[in-house]
Each structure stands twice: as structure tokens, then as C-alpha cells.
Design brief:
Elements (H helix, E strand, L loop, with lengths): L13 H13 L4 H8 L14 H19 L1 E4 L2 E4 L1 E7 L5 E7 H5 L2 H22 L6 H22 L1
Antiparallel strand pairs: 1-2, 3-4
Helix pairs in contact: 5-6
Length: 160
């Protein structure tokens, strides 16, 4: 395959795609091989990674904390849900910050519930865009689009 078929952006340039394709051809494409190739400061992949080990360790611990939070589950009426979800919370000074809140609390807060549903829809839309080319998955894609359309209508009516 040639790199011409790959979409480029300001960040994902032709050089970046070329390097990724070279890793795939030469070593096999996985995260370890990609990081190894990116170690060279002159490589177009280099700036995609944090090379300061102290900062990288801190960021990894934050990631581990998020993973731990997301592993907590609750069971409501025989249905397993995440115990916490990340939502925007308005602070006393009027600013907002993201915090993990208990799902049961979010479900009872109209704004946070709507935010969570919008984020879920965005995830599903992304999934639908990735897989709509497979005819076997068309019913799921149609259901996602229908659900989004219905919710948007409902929310527009609520604004009036």
C-alpha cells in the first residue's frame, strides 16, 4: 500500500504516515516498535511521545489512576454499570473542571446525564463511521443514527 491512500492532517503528515508504514513493513507495527523508531530526535514521530522520564512516569500514573477508577462497577437491577464517569462540574467560582462522579449521582443530574449521553453518542458515531462500510453491521449503524436524531429532536424541544 502506498501512503497516498492515508488521510493526512496538520499533525499526521505524510512523513508521519511514511514512518508508521516503514515500521509496519520492517519490524511489524506495534507500540513498542513505534516508540523505538521515534527515539531518534530527527524522526517525525519523536514529538508524539513524552521523553522526560519523570513527566512520562507521572502521566502514566495518571493513566493508571483513570484505569483504576474505571474498573469500579456497580450493579443496579441486575445491570452492571461503571461506578464513576468523568463529567464537567461547575465550581464555586463559576469555572468548570472535570471530575469523576458516581454514576448514580450523574443519572439524577439532568445536565451531567445529558453530557454523558452526548459523549456516548459521539463514541457511537465514531464507531458507526469506522464500520458503516460493512453491510453486516448496517442495522447497528442505522440504530445509532436514528437514536442520535431522536435525542437531538427531544433536546431541541426541551430548549423551547
Amino acid at each position: 500500500m502506498t501512503d497516498e491512500i492515508y488521510q493526512t492532517t496538520k499533525t499526521i503528515t505524510k512523513d508521519v504516515v511514511k514512518e508508521i508504514l516503514e515500521v509496519e513493513r520492517e519490524e511489524g507495527l506495534n507500540a513498542e516498535n513505534l516508540v523505538e523508531r521515534a527515539r531518534d530526535r530527527n524522526n517525525p514521530l519523536h514529538n508524539f511521545f513524552e521523553w522526560d522520564n519523570t513527566e512520562a512516569a507521572h502521566q502514566y500514573r495518571l493513566h493508571q489512576g483513570r484505569v483504576l477508577i474505571n474498573q469500579v462497577k456497580i450493579v443496579v437491577q441486575n445491570q452492571t454499570l461503571f461506578g464513576f464517569e468523568n463529567v464537567r462540574v461547575e465550581l464555586a467560582d463559576g469555572n468548570t473542571e472535570r471530575f469523576y462522579k458516581p454514576v448514580m449521582e450523574i443519572l439524577n443530574n439532568e445536565e451531567q446525564r445529558k453530557e454523558l449521553i452526548k459523549r456516548a453518542l459521539q463514541t457511537q458515531k465514531y464507531w458507526a463511521e469506522q464500520y458503516e462500510k460493512y453491510s453486516e453491521l448496517k442495522p447497528i449503524v442505522v440504530a445509532i443514527k436514528t437514536t442520535e436524531r431522536n435525542l437531538l429532536r427531544k433536546w431541541q424541544k426541551q430548549k423551547k
